[in-house]
Structures are given as structure tokens and as C-alpha cells.
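PROTEIN SPECIFICATION:
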Amino acid sequence: MKNIKDIKKKAALGLSLTLALGLLAGCGAGSISLGGGAAASAPAGSESAPLFGGSSVSVSASKLAETELDGIACLTVSSGGSYTLSGVYEDQMILVDAKGQNVELVLDGLTLSNSKGPAIYVRAAKTVTITLAPGSVNSLSDGGSYDIEDDDSSLDGCVFSKADLELAGSGSVQISGNYKHGIVSKDTLTVESGSWQISSVKTGVQGKDSIDVNGGSLLIAAGTNGMASDGALSVNGGSVNVSQSKEGLEAAVVNISGGETYIDASDDGINASDPDSSSGKGLGFGVMSPAGGSSSCAINISGGRLYVASGGDGIDSNGSIDISGGEIYVDGPVSNGDQAVDWQTAGNVTGGTMIATGSAGMASNVTSSEGQGTVFIGLSGEAGKEIALLDVSGSVIASFTPSKSYQCVLITSPQLRTGASYSVTVGGEEAASFTMESLRQNVNAGGMGSFGGKTPMGGGSQMPWGQDGSGAGSQRPGSKGQQNDGTSGAAPRLPEGSEQTPEGQQGEGGLTPPEQQEGSGQTPRFPGGKSQRPRINSQSDTI
């Protein structure tokens, strides 16, 4: 045990913690302990007790105790309740050890760093909610290496929870995962609200069982995965902006039904892969499934707006891809070993609008398109020139300006119907015209060879089309200057000294996220500027 005087010296300005007694249903009064000393009880009838040389803790029938874990001074929450934390707190850790109980941690102007382990460690609880107080600005960071070991837990995140974790509130927080990950839940993780800016050496947000984003704003700069789950990863609302990553979203099943999602990845943008592949457990993500794909892997897009910029596959499933709604724009790969949209078992379209550009070597049309048309066009183009799909009257159905050169375009829209004629323009000039003879149509613009890929319609030869995937415009989208909370500060960057920087993405001063849309907080801005953002028709609002 450390002397309490030593622990007092560790606090730069101190920590103020308020126990709100309007606790969660069924919970009793909160109990607190602080690293390294004998337990002490608050005087009967007192409102507060001195802590850390002048700061105070508001209490009611609660005890204060000084403890430590592996030499780290801890503030331990051992009973269910709502705890409000503020102030500057150095080389300390919030430890939640309240088995079977609900705990809320309200961050209200908290700066908390721990050079030896996680900033927040949930050892035991039923559910823990981290709430960002209205208007508050908070900061959490861990160290570049951990000295802490606890039971059978391999602690590896700035916020690390062995219980269900919920993120909520209306303030903002910057989380720096200097060791490995930003936020980790070994159970389920749910994002309801709040502004969460996360930089991490490895994964930004990890929920082992599942991740559900229902609202709020996530801005993530990650060395490996932006967000990852062994189970399902669902974006139902809010804003998800993975501005730097190796792979953007990765899970066995990825569902996108709402919100706005921006992904910039040096490898796959969205990847549905089985964490327990054919060779058994422990292989992790990125391992190919057995030949023929996996029935447990799926990407389902039914709503929302999605933009993917990828160095590898844009949208990649080791099982199926089903698109039934939403707006999808894929700024795909230039290498012929990858493609904008890739599946193992089936690629099905029943709704939604999509424009996907990329290399041609492995590309093909979808396997099924019902209720609307999907057209696969062999068409080479340069970065920065708008692609537009027009109907017979010249009205724009859908358009997109890619940031890289491309060799083919995959388009689907509810306005693509059999028997109707359409044209495609690039930079305002007509590049292809065709009549939809079926709901899956292949068009070869400019006599560029046969169609190749997995299971194309109308041909079967592999095709480089005279292209090697190189050329101008292969730089990844993104611009400097985005702020953390819409008011001040710099956007998240990978921790200094990280060796996990995504290949091909580092620029001057580190990695930077896409430009922020004016007046929109953290809504991602699509590449090319306001006049060139994706739109679904000529009258619609742009993203």
C-alpha cells in the first residue's frame, strides 16, 4: 500500500466526484475508494469530505477509501449508482467493481490519464453507462505500455469493460489509446449519443459480442480497425467517421440501416469475416473463409448514407451482400486484385442507390437484382471528374465524383428499369449509352475488352482492359483542419510513435480526417468539395 501523501502528490489539480443519490433502479448508495490508505468514513451528517488537498467528494452515507491495483492508485466504484467526475486526474484509474449492478459515470470536465494502464477499467458490473455531461469537454488517455495485470483479463484499451457498456450524453470526449485500443467492451457496446473522438494504435472501438450505433457522433483515427466485433456491428443512426484505418468496419455481420457513415481505409472499407475461420479460433479478422464463403458472414445495407474510400476491397463480405436501401458511394481500389464490391456467396440488390468505382480485374455485376436495375460498365476515368447517370430526358438520376482513377463503374437505382434508355457522362461528356434489356445489364464503353470477374453476365474472360490500376488520382480523400468538438482543438490522430499507421496514408504532421462540413459538427464531408458531393438526383440535397 502506498502512503496517502504519495497519492495526493500524483493529482495535478485533483478530482471532484459527486454521488447522485437518484440512483438507477434497484441500486443503493455509491461507495468510493481511492488508492493507497486506510478506509475512512464521512462524518455523520456531513455533505463532503476533503480529498486531494482541497478538492471534495459530495457524499451521503458513503465511505471513502484509499486503495491501489498493481501499484496504480484507483478510484473504485463498488456499488451501483450515478457518479459525476470532474477535474484533472493524473496517473490514476477509475475502477468499477460492482458485480451485478448498474453504474453510470458522468464525465463533466474530466481530464484523466493513466501511464500504467487503462483510464477506466470496468472489472465487474451489470451495465456501465458513460455519460458526457451537457456542454462538457473531457479527455481520457492511457500509457504506451501497461504494468497492470488483473485475474485472467488481458487489459488493452484506454476504456476497458468486462461488462455491457453504453455511451451517451451531449458533451464531448477525446480518448487516446496509446497502448492498443481506444474503447473495448468484452460484451456488448451501444452508442446512443454524445461526441466521441478516438485515436488508437490499433482498434478504435471494439465490442466483442456486438456493437450498436443508434446515435451520437464517432470520429475515429485507428492504426488497424476503426470498429470491430466478433458478432454484429450495426449502424442504425448517428454519424460514424472512420477517418483513418487499415480496415474501417469489421465484424461477422455488418448492418447499416441509418445515419451517415464515412470510411477511409488503406485495406478493406467494410469487411464481413468470420473470426473463427476454417483453421479454427484465434486467427482473427482478415483471414479468408473456406472456398465458397461462410453463411455466418453478411453485409446488409438497408438505409442511411455511406461513403467508402479503400485501398483494398471497398465493401467485402466472406459471405453475402444484400442492398435494399440507402445511398452508397464507393471510391474503390486501383489494384486489379481488389474490387469496389466483393462477395463470396451472393451479391443481391432489391433497393437503394449505389455508385461504386474501382479496378476491373476482379469486378463483376451483382448476382441478383430484383425490382430495380443494376448496370456494370467497363469505363475508365480520371479522378476529380463527376460520373452521372442520366435518363432519356437528360435528368440526373445519380452522380458521384471519385477521388481516384477507375476502370469500371457499378450503378444501381430504383429509376433503372428494363426497356428504358440511359446514358453515363464523365466530366459532363457522354461516355456510354445503353438500354436496360434486363435488371442486370453489362455495358462495355469504348471497346475495352470482355467482361471478367467472378460471375459476370455476357462473358467470362479475365480482363486487365489495358490498365494496370496506376495513374493520377490515386491519392486517398481527406483534408486537414477538422476540429474535435466543433469549437476547438485538432482532430484525432494516431498516437505518436505508433507503428500501426495505415500504409500509404501518412502525410505531413500525421494522419488527418476528412474535411468537416460547415455548421454540422462531425458529419463527414464527402470528397471533392460541396458542389461535388454525392447526390441521388439533381434536385436532392447534397451530403
Q: What stands out?
A: The longest strand covers residues 102-114. The mean pLDDT is 75.
